[in-house]
Structure formats: structure tokens, C-alpha cells
Amino acid sequence: AFTLLELSVVMAISGIVFAISYSAYTIVNKQYIEFKNANERIIDVSTIYAVLTKDFSEAQEIRKNGEELLLTKTDGGEIVYIFESEALIRKVNDVEDKFENILNEKISFLGAEQTESNGLVDELYYEIGKETFPLHIKKYYAADVLMTLKEMNQ
């Protein structure tokens, strides 16, 4: 049989062990949630970058209209990108994809470089979020496209 004093000591030690265990669990759980959120954000940013890069490379020409980019494909189809304060909208035909609220942070359209006077966009810069993921996409036009546009402007 145990005395009341022995049981009290065991209860106190058990309480300390449980408190340490709970504190350790709380810290590990918090780190896991931060890690999970960071990974989700990186996946979202990577997806946006991959889609934009693919569309840029497949587009015959890209033109800027305010906060929109109009990508004309070689098959005659069009893709429209709309840069809003909290979302990037991609429209293809009647289908609309919306990349929004990447962990409640802003998507900022920083600008687009245009080639000479023909109005074609050949570079896109944008950043995502407070910590900023600066992304840069470049479009290389074929000579025949540039020559056709030059002839049209004359």
C-alpha cells in the first residue's frame, strides 16, 4: 500500500510530464501547420508560374490592354489574363480559372515590356504576397511574326 504522500508525489510528477508533453505537442503542431501553409503557397505560386509560362510559350502574340494580357494562339484561340488586386483570372473561351487569395495576400502586376512600336508584350514581371515571389516570364517571337506585324504597320 502507498501512503498519501507517495501518491501526491506521483501525481505531481505525472502532472509535470503531461505539461511538458502537451507543450511539445503544441510546438510541433504549430510548426507543422506553418510548414503545410508554406508548401500550399509554393504549390499555388508554382502552378501560376507554370501555366503562365506555358501560355506565353504557346502564344503567337501577346498584347497588353490595361491590366489585361491578351494572348493569341497559333490556332486562332485567345487567352485573357486579368490581374486584379487579390486574384489572377485566366479566361480561355468560356472557361474561367481564378487564382485567388494565395494565403490572403496580394498579386501585383508589375508591368510588361513591349517591343518597339508594334505593341507586342515580350516580358512579364509580377510578384505575389508580402514576402514577394518575383516572377519573370519572357516571350521570344519568331521572325515571321515580327515581319508580318512590321508589314501591317507600314
- Please count the helical segments: 2
Give the end-to-end Cα distance, rounded to a whole number of Å: 106 Å
> How would you state the average pLDDT, rounded?
80
Element-level helix/strand string: HEEEEEEEEH
Beta-strand content estimate = 25-35%
Radius of gyration: 27 Å
Percent helix among the residues? 40-55%
Task: For this entry, give a set of tags.
154 residues, alpha+beta, 8 strands
Structure notes:
- The protein is α+β, with helices and mostly antiparallel strands.
- 43% of the residues lie in helices and 33% in strands.
- It has a 5-stranded antiparallel beta sheet with strand order 1-2-3-4-5, covered by helices on one side. A 3-stranded antiparallel beta sheet has the order 6-7-8, with helices on one face.
- Strand 6 and strand 7 form a beta hairpin.
- It is rod-shaped and about 105 Å long.
Topology of this structure?
Elements (H helix, E strand, L loop, with lengths): L3 H55 E7 L2 E6 L4 E6 L3 E6 L2 E6 L6 E8 L6 E8 L6 E4 L4 H11 L1
Antiparallel strand pairs: 1-2, 2-3, 3-4, 4-5, 6-7, 7-8
Summarize, please.
This protein is an alpha+beta fold and 154 residues long. Helices cover 43% and strands 33% of the residues.
